[in-house]
Every structure is written in C-alpha cells, then in structure tokens.
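Data card: per-record layout.
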Amino acid sequence: MEITGIMQCIPHRYPFLLVDRILELIPKRRVVALKNVSFNEPFFPGHFPGAPVMPGVLIIEALAQAGAVLLLHDMPERHRKLVYFTGIDKARFRRTVIPGDQLRLTLDVLKLRSKSCKMRGRAEVDGQLAAEAEILSALVDREGER
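The structure for this 146-residue chain is written out next.
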C-alpha cells in the first residue's frame, strides 16, 4: 500500500504522517511498514543541531500509526473512526535513528477486542533493532459521529 492508501486509512497528514508505505498487512494480525527518515523532517533542526537524531517518541508514534492502519484497513466505515494511542509498555530504545535511515516498522497483534487493541512493535534500521514497545490503542467514534 502506498501513501494514498495510508491516507485513506488514517487521518494524519504532513508533518505528522510518519508512515510512507505498507509492505505487508495480515488483517487483525500483523503489519509491516516503512518510514523513510529524511533530513527535511521538521524536528531535525532542533533535535539536535549539528547531530540530528529522530526523537524516540516519534519512532513510537510511527509504530502506533502503522498499527492504526492495520486496525482500520478492513473496517467498514473507517472514516467514522479514530484510533487513539492509549498506552506504551516495555518501551526500549536500542540505537539512534538519523537522516537517511529507513525504519522498518513491524507490529503483531497480541490482544484484539472490539474497541481496544494491544500490539507488540519493533522498529529496525538495516536489520538492527532501533526501538521496541507494546502499544495500546482504543478505537473510538469521530466527534459528531456518535
């Protein structure tokens, strides 16, 4: 799935859309996505001047967005839903992510209920673990759709 398909699933837009491509999607089970990290990202001038590093919270957010695509992809009337990021467990950061890196985001569903989900996520660069976490999310109706 390319960027236009991703944008049909989740409401995020530049500069906060952090998923560029979906490589694999097994409904209700697994998603593998890519985030191309460019020097033009709006956070690099301030994080850190002269030594750009992608903030860890944005790596986790990229994982959460890929998970949202997984949850919403096959949902009827997905335009009426939002996936809220509700928690992070067991987050660990193993290496820095810098401009020119390509993040491979892999999420596996651990628990899926009608209005909540828990996934295990891994972000890797060139096969090396950059970050990992368990992501908790809630599926909610968009305002005005209740």
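Known properties of this structure: The chain has a mean pLDDT of 96. The chain is about 15% helix and 40% strand.

See the next section for split statistics.
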